[in-house]
Design brief:
Blueprint lengths: L1 E4 L2 E4 L2 H8 L11 E4 L2 E4 H9 L8 H11 L2 E2 L1
Antiparallel strand pairs: 1-2, 3-4, 3-5
InterPro entries: SCO5918-like
């Protein structure tokens, strides 16, 4: 699925997202979160890992929207 985060286009799929976050320890959740595999990650952490961008460059809403379209649970 093609999506735009922080003005950059990304081609994301479920497998790529799961692979990118496998082995990444979830940080404490203080805001929005996303369930990937058996873990809940802060949306900004997941976005930073997936896009390799600084967290200040994108909003949690942009990442949540893209991950929801892929079928992940955001809360």
């Amino acid at each position: 699925m093609r999506c735009t985060i922080a003005g950059y286009s990304f081609e994301l799929n479920v497998g790529d997202v799961e692979r990118a976050l496998s082995g990444v320890k979830p940080e404490p959740i203080t805001g929005e979160s996303v369930r990937i595999g058996n873990h809940f990650y802060p949306v900004k952490q997941a976005g930073a890992v997936i896009t390799r961008q600084d967290r200040r460059d994108f909003s949690a809403a942009e990442v949540s929207r893209a991950l929801r379209k892929l079928g992940f649970t955001c809360r």
